[in-house]
């Protein structure tokens, strides 16, 4: 692995790893009714006194986003997430609210949605109209430092087949307004309604990528070619590759484990690109089907292995992922974090499973308890 694009010495006997960071989105909820509450601007204003712009608004006023600065390793990332989550929780509590980690709103509030005050959100409403109805959803985004954009888009080719597994492992949105939707990640289903959102296409080069995004912007299927909403994208402002496919998680340790797994996947892919491997040209329809199956069944169900088209247990696919990236995990001292995450999934289930287990027995039409 040291011959890849991120060489250099690092601490604790491990080579220097590319930095990584995380963005997480959360719902603001009323502690009594557990319905979402549209007070995002007030909560953000309070939190900024403690952590500046590491807490910000989101598409809907019932949401807030927390973000970490670039981190060197999983331990630093864990501490940063605890700090920014804590700032958001404290600010929400000062407004009489709580924070809910779920990919979809478990219980909706009364009245219409209140869209956040951002030019991009307003432009999206103008362009996509009713497609954005009910688009209050919460994700976790992982950023991994990548030296250049050409490498970033080619790494994306290698990540495409693994994205459905990341959906299944992070699935945490079975409910929408008190209804069990029958899917582990209903957030993934909501996102699938858009014409240029989901897994990125296979591209041959950065030039190919930029021509494609420009063409999609021209068709108005994409809002801005510089900021595509694909689940893997070179960040338009930062030297990072951004992976956006996961539901937000309740457990900080799970978020950290997913982040270091993704970093290992990016580094492994980068080494393959440097050896001249452009990545598997996995059929887009097969990837789309794998997304759907992962969203429906989640962990510990079976899913589509987009590399082969075979139906395999998610646990088998996850074990294959760890083996695929094991050299990078070992190189950066992250193997125990990844293995521990798989052990927790096996023992306690996914976020979707836990949401369902936390929901109170109820009569038809009654809402579940919020996590």
Automatic annotation (TrEMBL):
The keyword Aminoacyl-tRNA synthetase does not apply. The keyword Calcium does not apply. Keywords: ATP-binding, Ligase, Nucleotide-binding. One of its GO terms (molecular function) is ATP binding. Transmembrane segments: none annotated. It catalyses: L-cysteine + L-glutamate + ATP = gamma-L-glutamyl-L-cysteine + ADP + phosphate + H(+). It is an enzyme of class 6 (ligase). One of its GO terms (biological process) is modified amino acid biosynthetic process. Its EC number is 6.3.2.2. Residues 350-371 are annotated as: Disordered. Belongs to the glutamate--cysteine ligase type 2 family. YbdK subfamily. ATP-dependent carboxylate-amine ligase which exhibits weak glutamate--cysteine ligase activity. NCBIfam families: gshA_cyan_rel, PRK13517.1-1. This is Putative glutamate--cysteine ligase 2. It comes from Streptomyces inhibens. The lineage of its organism: Bacteria, Bacillati, Actinomycetota, Actinomycetes, Kitasatosporales.
């Amino acid at each position: 692995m040291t011959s890849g694009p991120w060489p250099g010495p690092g601490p604790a006997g491990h080579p220097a790893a590319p930095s990584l960071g995380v963005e997480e989105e959360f719902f603001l909820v009323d502690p009594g009714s557990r319905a979402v509450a549209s007070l995002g601007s007030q909560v953000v204003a309070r939190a900024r006194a403690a952590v500046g712009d590491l807490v910000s608004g989101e598409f809907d006023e019932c949401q807030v986003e927390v973000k970490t600065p670039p981190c060197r390793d999983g331990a630093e990332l864990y501490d940063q997430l605890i700090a920014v989550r804590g700032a958001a929780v404290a600010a929400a509590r000062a407004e009489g609210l709580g924070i809910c980690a779920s990919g979809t709103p478990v219980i909706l509030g009364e009245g219409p949605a209140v869209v956040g005050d951002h030019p991009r959100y307003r432009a999206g409403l103008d362009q996509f109209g009713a497609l954005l109805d009910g688009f209050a959803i919460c994700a976790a985004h992982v950023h991994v430092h990548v030296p250049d954009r050409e490498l970033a888009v080619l790494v994306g080719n290698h990540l495409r087949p693994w994205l459905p597994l990341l959906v299944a492992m992070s699935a945490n949105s079975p409910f929408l307004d008190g209804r069990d939707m029958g899917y582990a990640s209903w957030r993934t289903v909501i996102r699938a309604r858009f014409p240029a959102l989901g897994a990125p296409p296979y591209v041959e080069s950065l030039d190919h990528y930029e021509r494609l995004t420009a063409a999609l912007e021209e068709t108005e299927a994409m809002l801005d070619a510089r900021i595509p909403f694909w689940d893997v994208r070179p960040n338009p402002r930062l030297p990072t590759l951004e992976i956006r496919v996961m539901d937000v998680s309740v457990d900080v340790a799970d978020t950290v484990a997913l982040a270091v797994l993704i970093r290992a996947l990016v580094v492994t892919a980068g080494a393959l690109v440097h050896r001249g491997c452009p990545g598997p040209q996995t059929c887009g329809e097969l990837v789309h089907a794998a997304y759907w199956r992962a969203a429906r069944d989640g962990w510990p169900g079976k899913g589509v292995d987009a590399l082969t088209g075979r139906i395999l247990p998610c646990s088998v696919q996850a074990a294959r992922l760890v083996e695929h990236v094991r050299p990078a995990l070992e190189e950066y001292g992250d193997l125990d974090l990844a293995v521990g995450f798989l052990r927790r999934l096996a023992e306690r289930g996914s976020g979707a499973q836990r949401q369902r287990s936390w929901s109170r027995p109820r009569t038809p039409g009654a809402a579940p308890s919020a996590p």
